[in-house]
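Aim 2 progress update. The chain analyzed this quarter is reproduced below.
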Amino acid sequence: MTELDTFGIFRPLLFTIAYDILGCAADAEDVLQDSYLRWRDATEVTHPRAYLVQIVTRQAINHLRSVRRRREDYVGSWLPEPIRTTPDAGHDVLLAESVSMAMLLVLETLGPTERAVFVLSEVFGHSYGEIADMIDKSDTAVRQIAHRARAHVAARRRRFQPDSDTSRAVIDRFLLAAHTGDVSALMAALAPDVVQISDGGGRVSAARRPIIGAESVARFLIGLAHTSMAGATVEFGCFNAMPAVIVRAEKGDLDTVLLVELTDGLVAGLYAIRNPDKLQSVEVLRTLDITADPH
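Predicted structure tokens:
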């Protein structure tokens, strides 16, 4: 088996780790490309999986440190790059949650090392000793980092509900109410503390700040439906293990990927990615397999 064949076997796992740490598919691909070159030039590797996870983790931490300033200077709200996932991605709820928009935004508030330790321990089940070897720290230091990261995430995480057969019906009601301008019906589909976040990256028009509360979000969405989104067409998809609406302008050009977070049958979060740089992979139809974990 060649180096490329071996790397290909572990690629889905490695990409998921890199994406969880970075929140950007393009950055994750850069990390995998660099990691492959290091893997290709390595000699006498006894445990390929452990070696590759270590390389990808270290490269992802370094890459995240380098892009942090760029994200701090980002125009408007920053959202992770959406990535297609398979409809059954929610079967592994913990893994599915790790790539959800809500969780990725929480992870964004962690430092690079804390984020990597949380992902490796809580999502992929690595021991503190294994992680210590990966990031070149002591077991005690990793344990302390993991404790801080776990407490930080627990204080901010929202209850995750993966995409399911009932999601389409809820979203249908939500879209119909927005299209018809029925504020009462739309508010009935929204959680009282619903949050709407738009990411235009300064490239296209988008709300610069999060919109919070059922009435505010309802009026904002109805306004969009009857102005800039008038004549748009929609199709359904699954991104980041969440139900999503793909919005196309009148001429068929991709305009927005709207990820919908559902809790107890209500829309609790709306994440609208409009930045063209983050929508390039949507048309490529690349799908992230978040269930693959070869040993």
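The chain has twelve helices and eight strands. The longest strand covers residues 190-199. These observations will guide the mutagenesis experiments scheduled for the next reporting period.
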